[in-house]
Amino acid sequence: MGNHPKKKTTVDIYGQQYSIIGTESTSHVRLVASIVDDKMREISSANPMLDINKLAVLTAVNVVHDYLKVKEQLEKLEMQLKEKD
Question: Which keywords has UniProt assigned to this entry (predicted)?
Answer without folding.
Answer: Cell cycle, Cell division, Cytoplasm, Septation
